[in-house]
Amino acid sequence: MEILEKVAYMKGLAEGLGLDANSKEVKLLHVMMDLLDDIALELQDIRDEQSELEEGLDAVSDDLADVETRLYELDGEDDDGDEDGEVYQTTCPSCEEEIFFDESVLEEGGVLCPNCGEKLEFDLTDLSGCEGGCCCACAGEDEDDDDDEE
Predict the structure, then answer these.
(1) Which residue stretches of the chain are H helix?
(2) Is-contact 33 10, C-beta < 8 A?
(3) C-beta separation of 64 from 50 below 8 A
(4) Handedness of CA 8, 11, 17, 21 (dihedral sign)
(5) Cα 42 to the center of its chain, rounded Å
(6) 3-state SS, residue 87
(7) CB-side exposure of 21: number of CA atoms within 13 Å?
(8) pTM for the full model?
């Protein structure tokens, strides 16, 4: 039984008692029952609004799930072509925008910042693995150093 039904039942019981309607106690009971009726109506309105909100939230959640599915599908399509190559990242010193590029840009030695147009150049000599900055001369020096130590 719902709250509104219970309040209506209580009002019916009070009327069935045959109490004197002019007594202070009966007037107080009528005010209390009217107050309970108002509270029950307000509570029913809140429940109805909550139900509408839940339905709206479910619809938004479903729409978001569709967007996520499509987005991940698109990401998966883009990633298929890039699986063989690495993606690199740097920050432009002028605008501090993050820039992403692949190995072909490294081979070219530079790239233009898509945000501010600043030319960024890459010096890859330190990345060859040798301490001297070149790969041929240091290999020979390392062998000579090893001979001196023995």
Answers:
(1) 3-16, 24-82, 103-108, 136-149
(2) yes
(3) no
(4) negative
(5) 35
(6) strand
(7) 2
(8) 0.42
